[in-house]
Design goal:
Layout (H helix, E strand, L loop, with lengths): L1 E10 L2 E12 L4 E5 L4 H4 L1 H10 L9 E7 L11 H12 L9 E3 L2 E2 L5 E2 L4 H10 L4 E5 L3 H4 L6 E5 L2 H9 L32 H13 L3 E4 L6 H6 L10 H14 L13 E2 L7 H5 E2 L5 E2 L1 H4 L4 E4 L7 H5 L2 H6 L1 E6 L2 E6 L3 E6 L18 H8 L4 H5 L3 E4 L5 H5 L7 H19 L11 H7 L4 H13 L4 H17 L7 H9 L12
Parallel strand pairs: 3-4, 5-8, 8-9, 10-17, 10-18, 11-14, 14-17
Antiparallel strand pairs: 1-2, 2-4, 6-7, 12-13, 15-16
Protein backbone atom coordinates (compact mmCIF):
# COMPACT_ATOMS: atom_id res chain seq x y z
CA UNK A 1 0.00 0.00 0.00
CA UNK A 2 1.21 3.50 -0.87
CA UNK A 3 0.47 6.67 1.09
CA UNK A 4 1.34 10.30 0.35
CA UNK A 5 2.01 13.14 2.79
CA UNK A 6 2.83 16.77 1.92
CA UNK A 7 5.89 18.61 3.17
CA UNK A 8 8.17 21.46 2.03
CA UNK A 9 11.88 21.89 1.32
CA UNK A 10 13.75 25.18 1.13
CA UNK A 11 15.85 26.52 -1.72
CA UNK A 12 17.25 29.74 -0.35
CA UNK A 13 14.26 31.55 1.16
CA UNK A 14 11.65 29.93 -1.05
CA UNK A 15 9.71 26.81 -0.14
CA UNK A 16 9.41 23.97 -2.64
CA UNK A 17 6.59 21.40 -2.26
CA UNK A 18 7.83 17.89 -1.52
CA UNK A 19 5.52 14.88 -1.62
CA UNK A 20 6.60 12.15 0.79
CA UNK A 21 5.48 8.76 -0.55
CA UNK A 22 5.74 5.58 1.51
CA UNK A 23 5.24 2.14 -0.01
CA UNK A 24 5.08 -1.05 2.07
CA UNK A 25 5.33 -4.35 0.23
CA UNK A 26 6.05 -7.98 0.96
CA UNK A 27 9.62 -9.16 1.22
CA UNK A 28 12.53 -9.15 3.62
CA UNK A 29 12.37 -6.26 6.09
CA UNK A 30 14.20 -3.26 4.67
CA UNK A 31 13.92 0.50 4.80
CA UNK A 32 15.13 2.79 2.00
CA UNK A 33 14.77 6.53 1.34
CA UNK A 34 15.16 7.81 -2.23
CA UNK A 35 14.67 11.20 -3.89
CA UNK A 36 18.06 12.95 -3.52
CA UNK A 37 18.24 13.01 0.31
CA UNK A 38 21.26 14.38 2.15
CA UNK A 39 22.91 12.67 5.13
CA UNK A 40 20.49 14.18 7.66
CA UNK A 41 17.48 12.89 5.71
CA UNK A 42 19.02 9.43 5.35
CA UNK A 43 19.64 9.30 9.10
CA UNK A 44 15.95 9.90 9.67
CA UNK A 45 15.40 6.17 9.13
CA UNK A 46 16.65 5.37 12.61
CA UNK A 47 15.00 8.40 14.21
CA UNK A 48 11.63 7.55 12.67
CA UNK A 49 11.87 3.85 13.55
CA UNK A 50 12.67 4.54 17.22
CA UNK A 51 10.12 7.39 17.47
CA UNK A 52 7.29 5.22 16.13
CA UNK A 53 8.07 2.35 18.50
CA UNK A 54 8.52 4.61 21.54
CA UNK A 55 5.16 6.24 20.79
CA UNK A 56 3.38 2.92 21.45
CA UNK A 57 2.83 2.45 17.72
CA UNK A 58 3.80 -0.49 15.54
CA UNK A 59 6.59 -0.06 13.01
CA UNK A 60 5.93 -2.37 10.04
CA UNK A 61 8.38 -5.26 9.60
CA UNK A 62 8.16 -5.29 5.81
CA UNK A 63 9.92 -3.81 2.80
CA UNK A 64 9.55 -0.01 3.14
CA UNK A 65 10.43 2.45 0.40
CA UNK A 66 10.11 6.20 1.02
CA UNK A 67 10.30 8.53 -1.96
CA UNK A 68 10.75 12.30 -1.67
CA UNK A 69 9.38 13.84 -4.85
CA UNK A 70 10.37 15.66 -6.99
CA UNK A 71 13.65 13.77 -7.16
CA UNK A 72 15.60 16.65 -8.76
CA UNK A 73 15.24 18.86 -5.64
CA UNK A 74 17.91 18.17 -3.02
CA UNK A 75 16.35 17.39 0.36
CA UNK A 76 18.28 18.70 3.36
CA UNK A 77 17.79 18.77 7.11
CA UNK A 78 15.69 16.89 9.62
CA UNK A 79 12.30 18.53 8.91
CA UNK A 80 11.17 15.48 6.90
CA UNK A 81 11.15 13.17 9.96
CA UNK A 82 7.51 13.87 10.79
CA UNK A 83 6.07 13.55 7.25
CA UNK A 84 8.05 10.33 6.73
CA UNK A 85 6.68 8.85 9.96
CA UNK A 86 3.10 9.87 9.10
CA UNK A 87 3.37 8.44 5.57
CA UNK A 88 4.66 5.10 6.91
CA UNK A 89 1.86 4.92 9.49
CA UNK A 90 -0.70 5.65 6.80
CA UNK A 91 0.81 3.12 4.42
CA UNK A 92 0.78 0.41 7.10
CA UNK A 93 -2.88 1.09 7.88
CA UNK A 94 -2.20 2.18 11.47
CA UNK A 95 -3.43 5.67 10.58
CA UNK A 96 -6.64 5.99 8.57
CA UNK A 97 -6.90 9.80 8.39
CA UNK A 98 -6.80 11.75 5.13
CA UNK A 99 -3.81 14.09 5.18
CA UNK A 100 -3.97 15.29 1.58
CA UNK A 101 -4.13 19.07 2.27
CA UNK A 102 -2.06 19.15 5.47
CA UNK A 103 1.63 20.10 5.42
CA UNK A 104 3.93 18.41 7.98
CA UNK A 105 7.29 19.67 9.24
CA UNK A 106 9.33 18.51 12.23
CA UNK A 107 12.31 16.59 13.57
CA UNK A 108 11.72 13.49 15.70
CA UNK A 109 13.67 12.54 18.80
CA UNK A 110 14.21 8.85 19.52
CA UNK A 111 11.54 8.94 22.24
CA UNK A 112 8.95 10.40 19.85
CA UNK A 113 9.22 14.03 20.86
CA UNK A 114 8.98 16.69 18.15
CA UNK A 115 11.94 19.05 17.99
CA UNK A 116 11.86 22.48 16.30
CA UNK A 117 13.44 22.94 12.89
CA UNK A 118 14.78 25.92 10.98
CA UNK A 119 13.06 27.63 8.07
CA UNK A 120 9.46 27.07 9.21
CA UNK A 121 8.34 30.64 8.49
CA UNK A 122 9.46 30.82 4.82
CA UNK A 123 8.23 27.23 4.23
CA UNK A 124 4.75 28.02 5.58
CA UNK A 125 4.51 31.29 3.68
CA UNK A 126 5.40 29.54 0.41
CA UNK A 127 2.93 26.75 1.15
CA UNK A 128 0.18 29.27 1.90
CA UNK A 129 0.88 30.99 -1.41
CA UNK A 130 0.53 27.57 -3.08
CA UNK A 131 -2.93 27.13 -1.57
CA UNK A 132 -2.24 25.07 1.56
CA UNK A 133 -3.98 26.30 4.69
CA UNK A 134 -3.44 23.59 7.32
CA UNK A 135 -0.10 22.78 8.94
CA UNK A 136 1.33 20.63 11.73
CA UNK A 137 4.65 21.83 13.17
CA UNK A 138 6.67 21.21 16.36
CA UNK A 139 5.70 23.01 19.54
CA UNK A 140 9.01 24.86 19.46
CA UNK A 141 8.02 26.57 16.18
CA UNK A 142 4.61 27.65 17.49
CA UNK A 143 5.46 31.33 18.00
CA UNK A 144 7.14 31.62 14.62
CA UNK A 145 4.15 30.16 12.78
CA UNK A 146 1.60 32.21 14.72
CA UNK A 147 2.48 35.41 12.83
CA UNK A 148 1.39 34.04 9.45
CA UNK A 149 -2.11 35.13 8.50
CA UNK A 150 -4.69 33.09 6.60
CA UNK A 151 -3.65 29.60 7.76
CA UNK A 152 -4.48 27.11 10.51
CA UNK A 153 -1.47 25.81 12.43
CA UNK A 154 -1.39 22.95 14.93
CA UNK A 155 1.66 22.68 17.19
CA UNK A 156 2.45 19.23 18.58
CA UNK A 157 4.96 18.16 21.20
CA UNK A 158 5.29 14.54 20.05
CA UNK A 159 4.50 12.05 17.31
CA UNK A 160 1.83 10.53 19.55
CA UNK A 161 0.02 13.87 19.74
CA UNK A 162 0.07 14.12 15.94
CA UNK A 163 -1.27 10.55 15.64
CA UNK A 164 -4.07 11.18 18.16
CA UNK A 165 -4.97 14.46 16.44
CA UNK A 166 -5.19 12.89 12.99
CA UNK A 167 -7.11 9.90 14.35
CA UNK A 168 -9.63 12.17 16.08
CA UNK A 169 -8.80 10.73 19.52
CA UNK A 170 -7.46 13.98 20.96
CA UNK A 171 -7.65 16.90 18.50
CA UNK A 172 -5.11 19.69 18.89
CA UNK A 173 -6.22 23.29 19.30
CA UNK A 174 -5.19 25.68 16.53
CA UNK A 175 -2.35 28.02 17.38
CA UNK A 176 -3.84 31.46 18.15
CA UNK A 177 -2.48 34.26 15.93
CA UNK A 178 0.10 36.57 17.51
CA UNK A 179 0.04 40.32 17.14
CA UNK A 180 3.15 42.19 16.07
CA UNK A 181 4.33 44.29 19.03
CA UNK A 182 3.76 48.06 18.70
CA UNK A 183 6.76 50.29 17.87
CA UNK A 184 9.17 50.63 20.76
CA UNK A 185 7.43 48.05 22.95
CA UNK A 186 9.86 46.66 25.50
CA UNK A 187 12.76 48.29 23.69
CA UNK A 188 15.69 49.78 25.57
CA UNK A 189 18.70 51.03 23.65
CA UNK A 190 21.99 50.65 25.47
CA UNK A 191 23.65 53.20 23.16
CA UNK A 192 22.16 56.65 22.72
CA UNK A 193 23.49 59.71 20.94
CA UNK A 194 22.99 61.61 24.19
CA UNK A 195 26.18 59.93 25.42
CA UNK A 196 28.21 61.05 22.39
CA UNK A 197 29.99 64.24 23.37
CA UNK A 198 31.16 66.64 20.71
CA UNK A 199 31.56 65.43 17.10
CA UNK A 200 28.83 67.67 15.59
CA UNK A 201 29.89 66.88 12.01
CA UNK A 202 29.87 63.13 12.60
CA UNK A 203 26.50 63.32 14.39
CA UNK A 204 25.01 65.27 11.49
CA UNK A 205 26.46 62.81 8.96
CA UNK A 206 24.97 59.91 10.92
CA UNK A 207 21.55 61.58 10.86
CA UNK A 208 21.75 62.09 7.10
CA UNK A 209 22.87 58.47 6.59
CA UNK A 210 19.98 57.03 8.59
CA UNK A 211 17.43 59.40 7.03
CA UNK A 212 18.31 58.28 3.50
CA UNK A 213 19.60 54.75 4.08
CA UNK A 214 23.13 55.73 3.01
CA UNK A 215 26.36 53.86 3.67
CA UNK A 216 28.74 55.72 5.99
CA UNK A 217 32.44 55.54 6.89
CA UNK A 218 33.98 57.12 9.99
CA UNK A 219 37.72 57.81 9.72
CA UNK A 220 39.56 58.95 12.82
CA UNK A 221 42.13 58.17 15.51
CA UNK A 222 41.47 55.61 18.27
CA UNK A 223 39.14 56.89 20.97
CA UNK A 224 37.48 59.54 18.81
CA UNK A 225 34.04 57.90 19.18
CA UNK A 226 33.68 56.01 15.90
CA UNK A 227 32.40 52.82 17.52
CA UNK A 228 30.11 54.71 19.90
CA UNK A 229 28.55 56.57 16.97
CA UNK A 230 28.01 53.35 15.06
CA UNK A 231 26.44 51.54 18.01
CA UNK A 232 23.99 54.42 18.45
CA UNK A 233 22.57 53.90 14.96
CA UNK A 234 19.91 51.34 16.06
CA UNK A 235 18.48 53.95 18.43
CA UNK A 236 17.93 56.28 15.46
CA UNK A 237 16.65 53.83 12.84
CA UNK A 238 12.92 53.95 11.98
CA UNK A 239 10.71 51.24 13.47
CA UNK A 240 10.10 48.01 11.61
CA UNK A 241 6.81 47.48 9.83
CA UNK A 242 5.17 44.05 10.05
CA UNK A 243 5.95 43.33 6.38
CA UNK A 244 9.63 44.20 6.88
CA UNK A 245 9.76 42.10 10.05
CA UNK A 246 8.40 39.05 8.20
CA UNK A 247 10.98 39.43 5.44
CA UNK A 248 13.85 39.72 7.94
CA UNK A 249 12.47 36.87 10.06
CA UNK A 250 12.53 34.53 7.05
CA UNK A 251 16.29 34.98 6.78
CA UNK A 252 16.91 34.45 10.50
CA UNK A 253 14.59 31.45 10.53
CA UNK A 254 16.62 29.74 7.80
CA UNK A 255 19.87 30.64 9.57
CA UNK A 256 18.59 29.28 12.89
CA UNK A 257 19.19 32.59 14.71
CA UNK A 258 15.56 33.32 15.56
CA UNK A 259 14.85 33.99 19.22
CA UNK A 260 11.99 32.85 21.41
CA UNK A 261 9.79 35.74 20.26
CA UNK A 262 9.32 33.95 16.93
CA UNK A 263 9.74 37.16 14.93
CA UNK A 264 12.37 39.86 14.57
CA UNK A 265 11.09 43.03 16.25
CA UNK A 266 14.16 45.26 15.87
CA UNK A 267 16.31 46.09 12.89
CA UNK A 268 19.41 43.86 12.81
CA UNK A 269 22.78 45.27 13.83
CA UNK A 270 25.49 42.81 12.80
CA UNK A 271 29.13 43.30 13.83
CA UNK A 272 31.33 40.53 12.37
CA UNK A 273 34.93 40.47 13.60
CA UNK A 274 37.67 41.47 11.17
CA UNK A 275 38.87 37.85 11.10
CA UNK A 276 35.55 36.77 9.54
CA UNK A 277 35.92 34.68 6.39
CA UNK A 278 34.32 35.46 3.05
CA UNK A 279 31.95 32.50 3.52
CA UNK A 280 30.78 33.69 6.94
CA UNK A 281 30.15 37.16 5.54
CA UNK A 282 28.51 36.21 2.23
CA UNK A 283 26.96 32.87 3.16
CA UNK A 284 27.48 29.31 2.02
CA UNK A 285 28.86 26.17 3.60
CA UNK A 286 30.34 22.82 2.70
CA UNK A 287 26.95 21.24 2.00
CA UNK A 288 23.94 23.47 2.62
CA UNK A 289 24.05 27.10 1.52
CA UNK A 290 23.15 29.26 4.52
CA UNK A 291 22.81 33.06 4.68
CA UNK A 292 25.83 34.97 5.95
CA UNK A 293 26.29 38.18 7.90
CA UNK A 294 25.46 40.27 4.83
CA UNK A 295 22.00 38.70 4.60
CA UNK A 296 21.47 38.63 8.37
CA UNK A 297 21.96 42.42 8.30
CA UNK A 298 19.14 42.82 5.73
CA UNK A 299 16.83 45.66 6.74
CA UNK A 300 19.34 46.88 9.33
CA UNK A 301 23.02 47.74 9.73
CA UNK A 302 26.25 45.91 8.95
CA UNK A 303 29.02 47.45 11.08
CA UNK A 304 32.61 46.73 10.04
CA UNK A 305 35.01 48.15 12.59
CA UNK A 306 38.71 48.47 11.66
CA UNK A 307 37.80 48.19 7.97
CA UNK A 308 41.37 47.80 6.60
CA UNK A 309 41.95 44.79 8.88
CA UNK A 310 39.46 42.66 6.90
CA UNK A 311 40.79 40.52 4.10
CA UNK A 312 40.77 42.29 0.76
CA UNK A 313 38.79 39.48 -0.90
CA UNK A 314 36.21 39.62 1.90
CA UNK A 315 35.67 43.35 1.46
CA UNK A 316 35.42 43.06 -2.32
CA UNK A 317 32.52 40.65 -1.85
CA UNK A 318 30.51 43.62 -0.56
CA UNK A 319 30.35 45.23 -3.98
CA UNK A 320 27.37 43.31 -5.38
CA UNK A 321 25.09 43.66 -2.35
CA UNK A 322 25.92 47.35 -1.97
CA UNK A 323 24.81 47.93 -5.56
CA UNK A 324 21.97 45.41 -5.99
CA UNK A 325 20.64 44.78 -2.48
CA UNK A 326 21.00 41.00 -2.95
CA UNK A 327 23.83 38.48 -2.62
CA UNK A 328 24.11 35.45 -4.90
CA UNK A 329 25.95 32.53 -3.30
CA UNK A 330 27.12 29.69 -5.52
CA UNK A 331 28.42 26.49 -3.97
CA UNK A 332 28.51 22.81 -4.84
CA UNK A 333 25.15 22.49 -3.07
CA UNK A 334 23.53 24.99 -5.41
CA UNK A 335 23.23 28.68 -6.24
CA UNK A 336 20.94 30.81 -4.10
CA UNK A 337 20.08 34.50 -3.93
CA UNK A 338 19.45 36.06 -0.52
CA UNK A 339 18.22 39.60 0.25
CA UNK A 340 21.05 41.88 1.39
CA UNK A 341 19.70 45.42 1.52
CA UNK A 342 21.48 46.92 4.50
CA UNK A 343 23.10 50.13 5.64
CA UNK A 344 26.88 49.70 5.76
CA UNK A 345 28.62 51.50 8.60
CA UNK A 346 32.39 51.20 8.76
CA UNK A 347 35.14 52.62 10.92
CA UNK A 348 38.86 52.89 10.29
CA UNK A 349 42.00 54.68 11.44
CA UNK A 350 43.60 57.09 8.96
CA UNK A 351 46.99 55.33 9.28
CA UNK A 352 48.62 52.39 11.10
CA UNK A 353 49.30 54.39 14.27
CA UNK A 354 45.89 56.07 13.95
CA UNK A 355 47.02 59.68 14.38
CA UNK A 356 47.48 60.97 10.82
CA UNK A 357 45.67 64.29 10.40
CA UNK A 358 44.91 64.59 14.11
CA UNK A 359 45.20 68.02 15.67
CA UNK A 360 45.89 66.48 19.06
CA UNK A 361 48.42 63.68 18.46
CA UNK A 362 51.55 63.24 16.38
CA UNK A 363 51.61 60.64 13.59
CA UNK A 364 54.68 58.37 13.55
CA UNK A 365 53.96 56.63 10.22
CA UNK A 366 55.92 57.16 7.03
CA UNK A 367 54.08 58.24 3.85
CA UNK A 368 54.57 54.78 2.32
CA UNK A 369 53.12 53.08 5.39
CA UNK A 370 50.06 55.32 5.21
CA UNK A 371 49.58 54.63 1.50
CA UNK A 372 49.86 50.88 1.99
CA UNK A 373 47.45 50.99 4.90
CA UNK A 374 44.81 52.95 2.99
CA UNK A 375 45.27 50.77 -0.09
CA UNK A 376 43.85 47.82 1.87
CA UNK A 377 40.44 49.33 1.14
CA UNK A 378 40.00 49.52 -2.61
CA UNK A 379 38.86 52.64 -4.41
CA UNK A 380 35.80 50.91 -5.95
CA UNK A 381 34.60 49.93 -2.47
CA UNK A 382 35.13 53.43 -1.09
CA UNK A 383 33.26 54.75 -4.09
CA UNK A 384 30.19 52.82 -2.97
CA UNK A 385 30.17 54.43 0.48
CA UNK A 386 28.00 57.54 0.20
CA UNK A 387 29.20 59.43 3.27
CA UNK A 388 32.84 59.51 4.40
CA UNK A 389 33.50 61.54 7.54
CA UNK A 390 36.80 62.34 9.21
CA UNK A 391 36.52 62.66 12.99
CA UNK A 392 39.11 63.82 15.50
CA UNK A 393 39.51 63.45 19.23
CA UNK A 394 37.24 65.31 21.64
CA UNK A 395 38.42 68.03 24.04
CA UNK A 396 38.32 67.27 27.76
CA UNK A 397 35.96 70.19 28.36
CA UNK A 398 33.45 68.69 25.89
CA UNK A 399 33.75 65.26 27.52
CA UNK A 400 33.26 66.60 31.03
CA UNK A 401 30.48 69.00 30.11
CA UNK A 402 27.28 68.49 32.10
CA UNK A 403 25.21 69.87 29.26
CA UNK A 404 23.38 66.91 27.70
CA UNK A 405 23.83 66.21 24.01
CA UNK A 406 20.83 65.82 21.74
CA UNK A 407 19.30 62.37 22.41
CA UNK A 408 18.60 59.74 19.79
CA UNK A 409 14.83 60.26 20.10
CA UNK A 410 15.06 63.76 18.63
CA UNK A 411 17.31 62.62 15.78
CA UNK A 412 15.06 59.63 15.13
CA UNK A 413 12.03 61.89 14.81
CA UNK A 414 13.70 63.95 12.09
CA UNK A 415 15.07 60.88 10.29
CA UNK A 416 11.66 59.18 10.39
CA UNK A 417 10.02 62.31 8.96
CA UNK A 418 12.49 62.23 6.06
CA UNK A 419 11.77 58.53 5.55
CA UNK A 420 8.03 59.32 5.36
CA UNK A 421 8.74 61.84 2.61
CA UNK A 422 10.64 59.16 0.69
CA UNK A 423 7.85 56.65 1.22
CA UNK A 424 5.35 59.08 -0.27
CA UNK A 425 7.72 59.86 -3.11
CA UNK A 426 8.54 56.28 -4.10
CA UNK A 427 5.31 54.63 -2.95
CA UNK A 428 7.20 51.92 -1.06
CA UNK A 429 8.43 51.58 2.50
CA UNK A 430 11.53 49.71 1.28
CA UNK A 431 12.76 52.40 -1.10
CA UNK A 432 15.07 55.09 0.27
CA UNK A 433 17.14 57.79 -1.37
CA UNK A 434 20.23 55.64 -0.94
CA UNK A 435 18.66 52.92 -3.13
CA UNK A 436 17.61 55.19 -6.01
CA UNK A 437 18.43 54.03 -9.52
CA UNK A 438 19.19 56.10 -12.60
CA UNK A 439 15.50 56.61 -13.38
CA UNK A 440 14.76 57.99 -9.90
CA UNK A 441 17.90 60.14 -9.94
CA UNK A 442 16.85 61.82 -13.18
CA UNK A 443 13.34 62.43 -11.86
CA UNK A 444 13.92 63.51 -8.26
CA UNK A 445 17.45 64.94 -8.28
CA UNK A 446 17.24 67.51 -11.05
CA UNK A 447 19.60 70.42 -10.38
CA UNK A 448 19.37 74.12 -11.12
CA UNK A 449 22.02 75.75 -13.30
CA UNK A 450 23.79 77.08 -10.19
CA UNK A 451 23.87 73.61 -8.58
CA UNK A 452 25.12 72.05 -11.81
CA UNK A 453 28.06 74.48 -11.84
CA UNK A 454 28.86 73.63 -8.21
CA UNK A 455 28.79 69.89 -8.87
CA UNK A 456 30.83 70.22 -12.08
CA UNK A 457 33.56 72.12 -10.24
CA UNK A 458 33.67 69.50 -7.45
CA UNK A 459 33.68 66.69 -9.98
CA UNK A 460 36.74 68.09 -11.75
CA UNK A 461 38.63 69.38 -8.71
CA UNK A 462 38.18 66.21 -6.61
CA UNK A 463 38.50 63.93 -9.67
CA UNK A 464 35.30 62.07 -8.78
CA UNK A 465 33.86 59.09 -10.61
CA UNK A 466 30.44 58.87 -12.22
CA UNK A 467 29.32 56.71 -9.30
CA UNK A 468 30.53 59.33 -6.81
CA UNK A 469 28.46 61.96 -8.62
CA UNK A 470 25.35 59.79 -8.26
CA UNK A 471 26.08 59.23 -4.57
CA UNK A 472 26.43 62.97 -3.99
CA UNK A 473 23.05 63.57 -5.62
CA UNK A 474 21.41 60.92 -3.44
CA UNK A 475 22.85 62.40 -0.26
CA UNK A 476 21.88 65.92 -1.35
CA UNK A 477 18.32 64.70 -1.92
CA UNK A 478 18.24 63.36 1.66
CA UNK A 479 19.60 66.61 3.07
CA UNK A 480 16.86 68.46 1.18
CA UNK A 481 14.26 66.08 2.62
CA UNK A 482 15.53 66.78 6.15
CA UNK A 483 15.05 70.47 5.39
CA UNK A 484 11.56 69.82 3.89
CA UNK A 485 12.74 71.26 0.60
CA UNK A 486 11.29 70.07 -2.69
CA UNK A 487 14.39 71.19 -4.60
CA UNK A 488 18.07 70.52 -3.99
CA UNK A 489 19.59 73.86 -3.05
CA UNK A 490 23.26 74.92 -3.17
CA UNK A 491 23.67 74.50 0.61
CA UNK A 492 22.37 70.93 0.38
CA UNK A 493 24.82 70.17 -2.42
CA UNK A 494 27.79 71.71 -0.61
CA UNK A 495 27.11 69.56 2.44
CA UNK A 496 26.77 66.41 0.33
CA UNK A 497 30.08 67.16 -1.45
CA UNK A 498 31.83 67.66 1.90
CA UNK A 499 31.01 64.04 2.75
CA UNK A 500 33.01 62.77 -0.27
CA UNK A 501 36.37 64.48 0.26
CA UNK A 502 38.08 61.55 2.02
CA UNK A 503 37.40 59.00 -0.72
CA UNK A 504 38.11 61.39 -3.57
CA UNK A 505 41.13 60.54 -5.71
CA UNK A 506 42.81 63.80 -4.94
CA UNK A 507 42.63 63.34 -1.18
CA UNK A 508 43.51 59.71 -0.50
CA UNK A 509 47.23 60.18 -0.83
CA UNK A 510 49.60 61.74 1.67
Amino acid sequence: MTAKVQSYALTGLEGVPVTVEADISRGLPSYEIVGLPDAAVKESKERVRSAVRNSALEFPAHRITVNLAPAYVKKEGSAFDLPIAVSILRSSGALQADTGRTVFLGELALNGELRPVTGVLPALISARDDGYTQFIVPKGNEREASYIRGITVYAAASLKEVFDHLSGLSPLSPVPPSEFPPPGAGKENASDLAFVKGQPVARRALEVAVAGGHNILFVGPPGSGKTMLARAIPSVLPELSFEEALEITKIHSVAGTLGEAGIVTERPFRTPHHTATTVSLCGGGTKAVHPGEISLAHGGVLFLDELPEYKRSTLEALRQPLEDGVITVSRAGGSFTYPASFMLCAGMNPCPCGNYGSAKRQCTCTPNEIRRYRARVSGPLLDRIDIQVEVDGVDYDALSSSEPAEPSAAVKERASAARRIQRERFGSGKMTNGKMGDRELARYCALSAECEDILREAFERLRLSARARSRILKVARTIADLAYSEEILPDHLYEAISYRTYGAEGNVGV
